[in-house]
Amino acid sequence: HVQLVESGGGSVQAGGSLRLSCTASGFSSGDSDMGWYRQAPGNECELVSTISSDGSTYYADSVKGRFTLSRDNVENTVTLQMNSLQSEDSGVYFCATPMYWGRGTQVTVS
């Protein structure tokens, strides 16, 4: 069955970096648009970044220049490299396709 499993979350000080990975199973992620969303307590879920099947990327203005999304179609993974993290980046990060969502991984920036 289809699964999206996120990893790489954790706690980091402001200015630090984290790398989030999403491993897909049950389908070929290379054929699908993939994205990351995040939700902070009390806030709505917001789109962070997407990567299409042809490799083109989108970034929310709030993360542009700091986050980089890439994909490895052989490993069936997408990776979100997050640099210069700020407290506003804290939240639960979800990997998603147009049809499926992972369970999320917590990112805390203090």
List keywords for this structure.
mainly beta; four-stranded antiparallel β-sheet; 0% helix
Amount of beta strand: over 45%
Oligomer: single chain
Percent helix, as a range, is under 10%
For the terminal residues, how far apart are their CA atoms?
Answer: 37 Å
Provide the low-confidence segments as ranges. Answer: none
Task: Provide a count of the helices.
Answer: 0
Radius of gyration: 13 Å
Helix/strand structural class = mainly beta
Largest sheet: 6 strands, mixed
SSE string: EEEEEEEEEE
What is the number of E strands?
10
- Choose one word for the global shape: globular
Q: Largest sheet, order of strands side by side?
A: 2-10-9-4-5-6
Mean pLDDT: 95
Structure explained in plain terms:
The strands form two sheets. Strands 2-10-9-4-5-6 form a six-stranded mixed β-sheet, with no helix packed on it. A four-stranded antiparallel β-sheet has the order 1-3-8-7, with no helix packed on it. The chain is globular and about 35 Å long. The model has no long low-confidence stretch (mean pLDDT about 95). Helices cover about 0% and strands about 50% of the residues. A hairpin with a 6-residue loop joins strand 4 and strand 5. It is mainly beta and about 110 residues long. It is built from no helices and ten strands. The chain has strands spanning about 5, 10, 20-25, 35-40, 45-50, 55-60, 65-70, 75-80, 90-95, 105-110.
